[in-house]
Design a protein that fits this description.
Elements lengths: L1 E6 L4 H13 L3 E4 L10 H14 L4 E6 L3 H8 L6 E3 L3 H9 L5 E5 L5 H13 L6 H16 L2
Parallel strand pairs: 1-2, 1-3, 3-5, 4-5
Helix pairs in contact: 1-5, 2-3, 4-5
């Protein structure tokens, strides 16, 4: 499994903590930047991670910014991405089980590293339930197709 990681300056430290955590578990990560705490624009990094996931280069992605919101909006503009902003473990599980989220967004200024790592673990260990949820995810894809023509 290969995971795409990306952040702006507001999520840089959290991204690095997540990268270390995943690598300690033997999970390969590809870091799409940023590579410092110097101010940058989050859309570029959300897009890079999203493209890596949609292309199949990486199985899933994690993006971080100050709140998780801006970078998630950017990632969700790439057709095929279902990026969920999460700040608790229940939402992490539901984003996978019910929504088949393929990108996780976290806010460094919203949650601490300890909680973020728990969220990451829950998110990775929760499978998509399919069934009635598949029909709903398919409807999301249909909306995406309608507006991406």
């Amino acid at each position: 499994m290969k995971i795409a990681l990306g952040s702006d300056h507001g999520g840089y430290n959290l991204k690095n903590a997540i990268k270390k955590h995943l690598e300690e578990k033997g999970i390969e990560c590809e870091d799409f930047g940023t590579n410092s705490s110097e101010s940058v624009d989050y859309p570029e990094f959300g897009m890079k991670v999203a493209e890596a996931v949609v292309s199949g280069k990486c199985e899933k992605g994690i993006v971080c910014c100050g709140t998780g919101i801006g970078i998630s909006i950017s990632a969700n503009k790439v057709p095929g991405v279902r990026c969920a902003v999460v700040s608790d473990t229940f939402s992490a599980a539901m984003s996978r089980e019910h929504n088949n989220a393929n990108v996780l967004a976290l806010g460094e200024r919203v949650i601490g590293v300890g909680l973020a790592l728990k969220i990451v673990d829950v998110w990775f260990n929760t499978e998509f339930a399919g069934g009635r949820h598949e029909r709903r995810v398919d409807k999301i894809t249909d909306i995406e197709k309608k507006y991406s023509k």
